[in-house]
Amino acid sequence: MRKLKFEYSMELKFSSPVSRHYFALRCVPGDSLRQKITLTECRVSPADYTSADKDGFGNLKISGGCRRLHDMFSYYVAGTAVVQGMIVQKCPLHPMYRYPSKYTEPGPEITSFAEKVSQKCKRQGAETAMDRAVCAMHDLYIRFQYIPGVTDIGTTAEQALMQGKGVCQDYAHIMIAVMRRMGIPARYVNGLMIGEGATHAWVEIYTDGGWYGLDPTNDLYIDDYYIKLAHGRDYADCVVDKGIFLGNASQEQKIYVNVEEISDGRDSSVNGTAGGREADDPEKPDHAGTSYRG
């Protein structure tokens, strides 16, 4: 168990003023069996109003809007998290996590990879859901290359596996697709990792009556260096920052994330991440202009 201090800020600049800007943010971590959150600051600007509630997946969501003209939008969240990693989060299973979703529909590449992993599991005597998931995670880590900039937020698991390279969002989608193909319920998670960088994405599988986290990007179990923000069937269900506005403007986004371990009453900065690769940011601007969408 560790106590972590975290900061998460996002700044979105518009090339020209926009108005009637409505947003939904999943940038605030919530309490769970593995993490207890104490917020010290949470601000959104500009905003005529905001409200906090839980979405259909149980994630904390801040909704709001700004009707007046503005050329910048930002939020800042800070606090502490007492995190206990590598534990099963007991809860009933919703059947939606068994079936393909928007980003995880299996094609020939996913099907072939899942079959190869299943055969390898049999040869190695991996019978439990966790053993099979770890086997798949390790194979994906070896096969797939971490290369930023070659995929985007619309890339599916099948497309990413076909080209063999991508970022944490792609690793998560591929593993979820493979898990469901192998009969193991799985869901997408985004959150923060120890160190300084941006948001990260990983996977939770359902086993032993609850959810257990795995990070395929780094070939690691989720431990107490990870802070969870939200989960869903795939990326589309738990976008950290989503909005619509009226206006014809391009967008420039800057994100800053810092997570430090608090030890002996002092803040001890830890450089880097808990894994073999840097955390990346799957949260490119998702604020659409001119027309409205759901």
Task: Explain this structure.
The chain is of the alpha+beta class and 294 residues long. It folds into 2 domains: 135 residues, Sandwich (Immunoglobulin-like); 119 residues, C8orf32 fold, CATH 3.10.620. 18% of the residues lie in helices and 43% in strands. It is built from 4 helices and 18 strands. Strands 1, 2, 3, 4, 5, 10, 15, 16, 17 and 18 form a 10-stranded mixed β-sheet that branches. Strands 6, 9, 11, 12, 13 and 14 form a 6-stranded antiparallel β-sheet that branches. A two-stranded parallel sheet has the order 7-8. A hairpin with a 2-residue loop joins strand 16 and strand 17. Helix 1 packs across helix 4 and helix 3 packs across helix 4. The longest helix is centred in the middle third of the chain and has 17 residues. The chain is globular, with a radius of gyration of 19 Å. The chain starts with a strand and ends in a 6-residue tail after the last strand. The C terminus is likely disordered. It holds the Pfam family Bact_transglu_N. InterPro entries: Bac_transglu_N (IPR013589), Papain-like_cys_pep_sf (IPR038765), Transglutaminase-like (IPR002931). It comes from Mediterraneibacter catenae. This is Transglutaminase family protein.
